[in-house]
Specification:
Largest sheet: 6 strands, mixed
Strand order of the largest sheet: 3-7-6-11-5-17
Helix content: 10-25%
Structural class: alpha+beta
Order of helices and strands: EEEEEHEEEEEEEEEEEHEHHEEEEEEE
Radius of gyration: 22 Å
Shape: elongated
Number of domains: 2
CATH superfamily of the largest domain: Peptidoglycan recognition protein-like
Distance between the termini: 40 Å
Number of helices: 4
Oligomer: single chain
Low-confidence stretches: 205-219
Number of strands: 24
Mean pLDDT: 89
Bound molecules: zinc ion
Length: 290
């Protein structure tokens, strides 16, 4: 990918698909981006996102929409001011619309339901293979999120690399909407491997990516959930004669570290990370996933 005159071109010299949004006004400060903001669309197709950004009433837009198959539509020149960030702040800069390029990845975001029965907010079924179970960094809820496809990630990295090179930005300039509008926005969410994404661009600015990058997952060990309605005591040792550290409420999620018969040493999961550790009676646990 290359950029000329604030427009995106494929390596073949062909211009990327263009469908201009009316939802933009003026130019970015200094007529060039200082940040790149990553979003998800909350939908399932490029067409639905483009149609939203073409609709004046939506009052929203982005410079780029990237589909699950890597297909890309540019909707504004990269020096123009689109409406994707809303109320936002990053490292002392407010209102990122005036300083950034917005990239929307087609993705449902968080899902309702459970394995075998995932659904988008719109009720659309989503297959298990397309789902990662993770907690967002801003809430402790382990939830299903639609995964970003390898093709989509590869295209995104190609385009972001071109943007960084053309506008002389460092990978630190890449932020999530959830970074700049914490609490208000959840996109691109934990399924987007932001740290790895930045690192890949940091270490190999000039190289092509040989391996597709896929979403990070927190861990592969089995996660268990507390089934006891009145909660389950987390203890200092394996037996009821030991002190209670805390009572884990029903549906608390934890991982097993070791076992002594029916007594297990576990760590409570908070934001997907191991937190308090102690012993529980395993009868009141059920596995959440294999
Ligand atoms: Zn967003």
């Amino acid at each position: 990918m290359k950029i000329r005159n604030h427009l995106l071109y494929h390596d073949t010299g062909e211009r990327a698909s263009w469908n201009e949004t009316p939802n933009k006004r003026g130019n970015l400060v200094e007529k060039k981006p200082a940040f790149i903001v990553i979003h998800y669309t909350g939908g399932s197709t490029v067409e639905s996102a483009v149609s939203t950004f073409k609709n004046r009433n939506s009052q929203t837009s982005a410079h780029l929409v990237i589909g699950k198959d890597g297909s890309t539509v540019q909707m504004a020149r990269f020096h123009e001011r689109c409406w994707h960030a809303g109320r936002s702040e990053w490292q002392g800069t407010r209102n990122l619309n005036s300083y950034s390029v917005g990239i929307e990845l087609v993705n449902w975001g968080w899902l309702m339901g459970e394995p075998g029965h995932w659904r988008s907010w719109a009720g659309t079924p989503v297959e298990d293979e397309g789902v990662v179970r993770m907690a967002h960094k801003y809430d402790g809820q382990l939830r299903g999120w639609e995964a970003y496809s390898p093709e989509q990630m590869q295209t995104t990295i190609d385009i972001v690399r071109a943007l960084l090179q053309h506008y002389q930005l460092s990978p630190e300039a890449i932020v999530g909407h959830d970074d700049i509008s914490p609490g208000r926005k959840q996109d691109p969410g934990p399924a987007f491997p932001m740290v790895r994404f930045r690192n890949m661009l940091m270490s190999r600015m000039d190289d092509r990516v040989d391996e597709p990058i896929e979403s990070d997952t927190t861990h592969h060990e089995t996660v268990f959930s507390v089934t006891a309605v009145s909660g389950l005591n987390l203890r200092t040792g394996p037996g009821i004669d030991t002190a209670v550290v805390k009572t884990l409420r029903r549906d608390t999620q934890l991982i097993r570290l070791e076992a002594e018969g029916k007594w297990w040493l576990v760590s409570e999961l908070v934001n997907g990370q191991a937190d308090t550790t102690g012993w529980v009676y395993s009868h009141w646990l059920t596995p959440l996933r294999p």
